[in-house]
Amino acid sequence: MKNQAFNPFLPSYEYIPDAEPYVFGDRLYIYGSHDQFDGPAYCYNDYVCWSAPTDDLSNWHYEGIIYKKIQDPKYKDGNCMYAPDICVGPDGRYYLYYTLDRIGIMSVAVGDTPIGPFAFYGYVKRPNGEIIGESLDDLYQFDPGMFIDDDGRIFLYTGFAPEPNSTLHSSKGRPVNAFGSFYFELEPDMLTVKQNQPVPLIPTPGASAGTGFEGHEFFEASSMRKIHGKYYFVYSSINSHELCYAISDRPDGGFVYGGTIVSIADVFLDGRETKDALNYMGNTHGGMVQVKGQWYIFYHRQTNLHQYSRQACAEKITIEPDGSIKQVEVTSCGLNNGPLRGKGRYEARIACNLISSEGCTFYAFHHKQSQGVHPFFTQDGEDREDNPDQYITNFNNGCIAGFKYFAFDGDEHNITINIRGEQFGQVMVFTEIGGDPIATIDITSSNQWRDYTAPLTINKGTHALYFTFTGQGNFDFRHFEIV
């Protein structure tokens, strides 16, 4: 029986945010930042790469460390490498673009294969050799998006544009919000810009009136693709929890707002507002890729009750005949070829909706916020590969964990949950929030992982599963099984 694909699609101990997906040959590769389990800051680890055969997106292979931050001559102790992007240069080599945090200069590494090994190559510079970003008059370089058009023109998209009054508004005095995203066109050497100053592309908050981008202005995460002769610019909006797109007939301007592709909390989907979010919010970043005729959007979610341990996810998307992309919901089965099987054992970590009795919050940027009533994803221990089991913790009264979707045959009879903790009450299972329960599981306290089973009544068809707790105390939720 063929393996299934889940969200997150990498092993539970791996934390890859900002994933840019590319097909090289017969494999799909992702290039992203590298967070640490319960890490102290964004992008704490060196770059690694994962890949999967294009005919089996459940079979991800660890390609190892492809580039270390200490390879950059400007690295200083404590620097992290932020979101990268990659492209194949005119010479057939692979060029990796990135920035070290708090520096604002675009670095470039190069390798002979999609997985390197990558060696430091240089810094993006002006024709006179001046490194862009060294002057305080230069705009802050951030989140590269690389694109080479069919005519050979090479574009570097970059930019960081928080709200004008935000504490993130400047870095070492550099103007980071003069306009939203911008681009440089590069020479074939992949380092030298053709124009001394960047060219604006997508507006920032405070400069969007009348543009159509109001409420979804550019924040970060530039990513460009060409589809059916149209140019799609994917970016993280000022709302942070969503990836939006803009579309144009050319790569160097004329972009109009298209819409939201995905929100990690399903905000804006079917008119949903932030107060009704179905998942915990934080930043997200990713790009689009076509695999075997199917388009996907890659994004990331948060874990560990903060924004420093993020994991890659993906969803199928459809390019409509008119070129538009409708917003898709987050699911547990994004890279799977359809819903998951209605029988089997599933880890709780693939929950795509996680909600407390007080709703969902926006995770803190710089510190781990108070646990309070909020459930979250975590794991035991810091030795990630030696502690691969991720689970939901602090599952307390009124919490909901949602999983989408499963194909049921109608002959499923029992459901078992595996939990531990000091609790007493019932876990009820629904196919829709606010619906009638299809199973009621009585649970008691246990400091060890323990199974609890109840009869299951579910109709044939494709359904979501929502687990909610009514009772006292809280518990860890590791997996469930349907037979």
Q: Would you kindly provide a brief summary of this structure?
A:
The chain is 0% helix and 43% strand.
**Overall domain count:** 2
What is the arithmetic mean of pLDDT?
94
Shape: elongated
Radius of gyration: 23 Å
The rounded distance between the terminal residues' Cα atoms is 17 Å
Number of strands: 31
CATH class designation of the largest domain: Mainly Beta
Walk me through this protein's architecture.
With 483 residues, this protein is an all-beta fold. It is built from no helices and 31 strands. The protein has strands at 20-24, 27-31, 47-53, 61-67, 85-88, 94-99, 106-111, 119-123, 145-148, 154-158, 170-171, 174-175, 181-186, 199-202, 218-227, 230-237, 242-248, 256-263, 288-291, 294-303, 306-317, 340-341, 344-347, 353-355, 376-379, 390-396, 400-408, 414-430, 439-443, 446-455, 461-482. Strands 22, 23, 24, 25, 26, 27, 28, 29, 30 and 31 form a 10-stranded mixed sheet that branches. The radius of gyration is 23 Å and the shape is elongated.
List the helices and strands and how they pair.
Layout: E1 20-24, E2 27-31, E3 47-53, E4 61-67, E5 85-88, E6 94-99, E7 106-111, E8 119-123, E9 145-148, E10 154-158, E11 170-171, E12 174-175, E13 181-186, E14 199-202, E15 218-227, E16 230-237, E17 242-248, E18 256-263, E19 288-291, E20 294-303, E21 306-317, E22 340-341, E23 344-347, E24 353-355, E25 376-379, E26 390-396, E27 400-408, E28 414-430, E29 439-443, E30 446-455, E31 461-482
Parallel strand pairs: 22-27
Antiparallel strand pairs: 1-2, 2-3, 3-4, 5-6, 6-7, 7-8, 9-10, 10-13, 11-12, 13-14, 15-16, 16-17, 17-18, 19-20, 20-21, 23-31, 24-27, 25-26, 26-31, 27-31, 28-29, 28-30, 28-31
